[in-house]
Amino acid sequence: MPPLYFGVYILAIEQSSLLDSLFLRLSSFLFFILYPKFQIYRKKKAVFLTKMKNESSKTILLIDDEEYICEVVQSCVEVFSNWQITTASSGQEGLAESAIAKPDAIVLDMLMPSMDGFAVIKQLQADPNLADIPVVLLTARVDLTEPQKIAQLGVQGAIAKPFHPTKIVDQITKILGW
Are the C-beta atoms of residues 106 and 136 closer than 8 Å to each other? Predict the structure, then answer.
């Protein structure tokens, strides 16, 4: 049996009539349209929702000190893309992780304690091994989303907080040209 995504499974109504059978098939079809990276696994009277294998060609490093932001972004990236995502909860941890993992892109919060996003950007740009990694800002500072500031900081683009979780993958894709 395939592994369960988030340990979630759905129990199906016993298919005692043609109507129930049609409803289950229609709902499965609609589910696949909305969430193509999932599959439904049927065994006896139970229906299991599973995440299909993630064959990713891109890796994202999310650096943000707010745990719930990391969880939301990570979940959305896993569901709505085929990218791999790792998280870091501080600037120092993010720099260490970027040196080890060499991600394809970094999504960076600007307002963090001890080492803010500005310091992280400076250190990334100073390191020849990390300077070519594109950075996308995820920030509550609206002034940093202006094109002049983006160019001045040397980053690819910015996403303003609060953001729409289901659209963040599209925003990152558009900014990075993926």
Answer: yes
